[in-house]
Amino acid sequence: MGNAESGPIVRNADKRTSRREHRAIFEAAAQRFRLAPFEAPERFTAAQSRGVRVCVRKRPIFSHELEQGEFDAVTCLEPGRIVVHDARMHPDMVKLFMNHHDFGFDEAFGEQMGNFEVYQGTARQIVQNALEGKSGTVMMYGQTGSGKTYTMRSIYEQAADEIFQSPRSVTVSFIELFGESCFDMLNQGVPCQLTTAQDGSVHPFPCVEVEVQTPSELLALIDLAGRLRATAATGVHDQSSRSHALCRVFVDSDGEEGSLTLVDLAGSEHRIDNAEHNAERRKEGAKINASLAALKECIRARASGAKFIAFRQNRLTQLLRGCFLPGGHHETVVVATVSPSSKDTEHSLNTLRHACIMDGQGQGKQEKGSHLGGGAVTKETLGEIDVTKIARERRQKQKEAPEPTAEWGKPPSKPAHQSKESNTSRRAALDRKYVRLLEPSVAQRLQDAREAWGTAKQRMRLARPPAVEESQEPEAKPEPRAPAPEPAAPVPAPANAARAEAREVIFHSVFQQAPVEPQDPDKDRAIELFRTFLSQGREGQNWRKNDLRLINLFVVPWLFGEARIDWNHPVLALDELEQLVKESPERLKLLGNAKPSAQSPKPAPPAPPAPAPASARPPLPGRLRSPETPNGAGTSWSTPSNDQPPLRRAGTGDVRRKPAEESPTSRNARSASPASRPPASHSEVIRARREAMEQARQEALQKALAKKAVPQSREEEIASLEAQILGGGGSSYAAAGLKRRLQSLKATMLREEKLAAAKAAAGQRVASPVPVAPRPRSGSLSRPSSAGAG
Ligand SMILES: Nc1ncnc2c1ncn2[C@@H]1O[C@H](COP(=O)(O)OP(=O)(O)OP(=O)(O)O)[C@@H](O)[C@H]1O
């Protein structure tokens, strides 16, 4: 294969090189097509029922790409037609031809189309739906460097303007998915957990969600989060997004919550582009591609009307579950971005083929071979090149070229992008820098949200009833592919009030005092697990994260109010649970009222004991508590109203003020004296957890070391090893290990003996460090022949 870089004409050049070498011929063919396009192949028409709108956008070709010898290999023709001109050379390296790949989508935006047109044709409908209390998703998909972030940025701006055309209650959260981890970008990029709600949807919880009042506030927070996003220099461009960014905007409209999810996916990668990447970048790339594959598969399954959609296989698909639900309650638009550069032809084809799959246009595989199919291909032959002439020119060029200077001995220079560092390690500093630039009122709201342990709205979402209720109330849905209607004033639907009421009931049952909803198997299971814990202790069973998560979600809030256990770390969680039970045994009486659904068939839940007024409750055990108000009353954990003071995590306060006397390792000390406990921010709690884990690790290590340090002389060890070898038993591997250890001990002894003898011979009196006892000789193990020298 030839070199992909430009240089003298070579035989057996790769595709990219031959495209550059014969650029004039290929470019002329593409130009001819633009002037007189072939007739469009039969378009895919059954678009109405698929529920996913797929649009494409081509970015302009950059001048540096033209200077490098590339040409524009993509043509957008309305309506929704996009053609990729794949310039090829026959294997005989003489004949040239061009495959014109013709694709049809809902919209195809060429380079001449501005951000306004793109917004109108893609996101506007979804934004309108959100304003009417529905939910929708816009996602950017495509090769790295093809314009996803550029397009998404313009959508943020235009959506912000549209949302605030009339005054509304709007909140925003911004998370990043990096591999399998989720990070809260409005909270310095700290990790956050994903929690499954009652209706099966998955939400980050607790997660910073900030109220915004103007478009500029919304954009400022999105900007802050975007700056912290994991970017790295790649082979394609310097600030490539290495993570998926999910911006969620929640809009209140007449008691119904609409949501708008804007997803800027990480760029898909090609082997050629990551050829110079280090191991870390390649691993990132593999994870990115895996999550994109999972996403495509789910969208394809939805588009093809599959009954089962495997959305649990990846964090990304879990978070975007709404997009795959049948029934059209959640509208989704995918914008596939493509680069026009001839060097990216394979990438662009790949993106468009995958977009076809997402659009439900067939199953993807070509009839012959394992490559993805999609699009209609028209082959155009472009004649033959004059090999003799080219060879002559090449020789001439080589003659004229200056002698290459000797570069021997110099290490090959590192690709520029490898020396650039990822920004993930600098997040806290970046956050401090950019928070300072925010308006004081927004900064204050952000700070308050960071100190709260989730919001009442987030708890409401987690307690949202399953979709059965929705299916009983079929709503008139707009046609998925209909042009964007004029914004209509939202009419409060009578169903909304009923739904809100149902949510309220469930919210109280989960987060306030009611013991269980009899029909919920999760709650039953949580209570059952907790009973096992009480009766058999931590050894009662092998505790899995999910068991502890259920206890954390259903039992702990009910019995212990504001306390939470760290279910992500089972050992810590069990410690915390033990502590909670030990400190408040009287609260376990409430458990007597809870009956599993099998025993209490109908929703006549036993009247839960009225919760004691917050001020009368005993102080909460555990490290997570509500902050004490000056008069001693704790803030209610489960207050759903927004008028209430923000819900706070245990002992949270102003994170910027870290009291000097606080010891970071004082988790236990804190729980021992809650009143004197200083405020702790989210990051401090995480740090304290890490320290507790580290301490536990150290203790375990000390224990293990103490066990190992059994005093045993070398002779005793040799005797014991010989006895074990003679005794047989154990595997052959174990026996080989014993023999090796025995040989090494004997060899050491021999060395020491020789040394002592040599010193004695030299007339020195050397006290042997280890008293040398007569060595027991084993019949089975012969000594090395040199042993006789001792
Ligand atoms: N339609 C467009 N018009 C003008 N410039 C564009 C357009 N699309 C993208 N660009 C420019 O191309 C470059 C790469 O775009 P962008 O960062 O949006 O790519 P990306 O697909 O998000 O890449 P990655 O996935 O690696 O983050 C940027 O400099 C951007 O300004």
Question: In words, what does this structure look like?
Answer:
The chain is an alpha+beta fold and 790 residues long. Among the domains are: 14-111 and 340-385, no CATH class; 714-789. The protein contains 24 helices and 18 strands. Strand 15 (244-253) and strand 16 (256-264) form a beta hairpin. The chain is globular. The protein binds adenosine-5'-triphosphate (ATP). Pfam families: Kinesin. InterPro entries: Kinesin-like_fam (IPR027640), Kinesin_motor_CS (IPR019821), Kinesin_motor_dom (IPR001752), Kinesin_motor_dom_sf (IPR036961), P-loop_NTPase (IPR027417). GO terms for molecular function: ATP binding; microtubule binding; microtubule motor activity. Keywords: ATP-binding, Cytoplasm, Cytoskeleton, Microtubule, Motor protein, Nucleotide-binding.
In short:
Among the domains are: 14-111 and 340-385, no CATH class; 714-789.
What is this structure's SSE topology?
Blueprint: H1 15-21, H2 23-35, E1 52-58, H3 63-67, E2 74-77, E3 81-89, E4 95-104, E5 107-109, H4 115-121, H5 124-131, E6 135-142, H6 148-163, E7 169-178, E8 181-184, E9 190-191, E10 194-196, E11 202-204, E12 210-212, H7 215-228, E13 231-232, E14 240-241, E15 244-253, E16 256-264, H8 279-303, H9 315-319, H10 321-324, E17 330-338, H11 345-358, E18 376-384, H12 387-400, H13 427-435, H14 440-451, H15 456-462, H16 468-472, H17 494-511, H18 521-536, H19 545-560, H20 570-583, H21 667-672, H22 682-708, H23 714-727, H24 732-761
Parallel strand pairs: 1-5, 1-17, 6-16, 6-17
Antiparallel strand pairs: 2-3, 3-4, 4-18, 7-8, 7-12, 7-15, 8-9, 10-11, 13-14, 15-16
Helix pairs in contact: 4-6, 6-7, 7-13, 8-11, 18-19, 23-24
Bound molecules: adenosine-5'-triphosphate.
The site of adenosine-5'-triphosphate has 16 residues, from helix 6 and strand 14.
